[in-house]
Amino acid sequence: MAGLVELEVLGVRRQTSVDQVVVLLLDLSGRRLLPVVVGPSEGAAIAAGQAGVVPPRPMTHDLLVSVLETCGVGLERVEIVELREGVFHAALVLDSGERVDSRASDAVALAVRVGCPVLCAPEVLEESSLEVEGATPEDEMAEFRAFLDKVTPEDFENAPPEGPMEAP
Questions:
Q1: pLDDT in tens, 113-138
Q2: C-beta of residue 47 within 8 angstroms of C-beta of residue 55
Q3: Is the pTM of this model over 0.85?
């Protein structure tokens, strides 16, 4: 964990002007925002996990959490470890010490379900983050929480991802 920066999952936002879905991650110092472009279904999964939505039957991320729990393995943290050719790469770090390669969107969807930390390599933040100016982190969080209160999974249908995103 040394050297990694902890991030808060602010939420998911659909940018209609460019028709893409973005997960917004804020470093805990509140100075940098890491936008990760994701697919519409991944965005809906993250938003549902943040909202605590429990589907009648387990969706993929809920199923994986159940499998880990059944096997007696916990998800300790997720790490966004690299941005390679515009694609974010992540790792699931299990409490056994094992690491599992993951798409950033899947890692974040699991993290919001189990409540584990989301960490990021400093070089990824240096390359891809945006400086937060003017608004305080509390203002940013309030804005995105208000957005999450209104968003539905249908808001993320048929949005083609563009820009830096997670690996397929």
A1: 999 999 999 999 999 999 887 655 56
A2: no
A3: no
